[in-house]
Amino acid sequence: MSYNFQGTDHSNEFGTQDIADNKVICILAYIPILFWLPLVTGNTSYCRFHANQGLLLLLTSIALSIASKVVNIVIGWIPIVGWIISGLIALIVSVVVLVLMIYGMVLTGQGRSKELPGIGSIARLIK
Which helix (H) or strand (E) holds 85? Predict the structure, then answer.
């Protein structure tokens, strides 16, 4: 089984009017806690796609945050070195989530529907 880390482009699956009508609200789906907003306002296939990507981003950020906290608990008690490593891991997690969020927002703003790299093709949670 091969895994696509670049994300598949689904832009041609949605109508241009659907994209034009819902582009702004779908941009907000990439703010992790607001993934549900396109479902409430638009509930089209385009909105569901971006809500799904936003939900995956939220779940990924939660999982990475928990992993970061576990690392902090395990090695955070080591003076200086443990603090530095724990802080760097927390920073990397924050940067990864921020980059994925901005990436999704920019592509949606351009009217494109591309899966988030690394996590976008994991599952279709919202159908």
Answer: helix 81-109
pTM for the whole structure: 0.85
Q: Beta partners for 9?
A: 114
| Run of H or E residues at 9 | none
Give me the sign of the Cα torsion angle 68, 69, 70, 76.
positive
User: Which residues make beta-bridge pairs with 114?
Assistant: 9
Helix (H) or strand (E) holding 110: none
**Digits of tens for pLDDT over the chain (127 positions)?**
455 556 677 778 888 888 888 999 999 999 989 989 998 988 888 999 999 999 999 999 999 999 999 998 999 888 889 889 999 999 999 999 999 999 999 999 998 888 898 887 777 776 6
Cα of 59 vs its chain's centroid, Å = 8
> Tokens standing for 66?
């928990």
Range 36-39 contact pairs with CB under 8 angstroms and sequence separation of 24 or more? 39/126
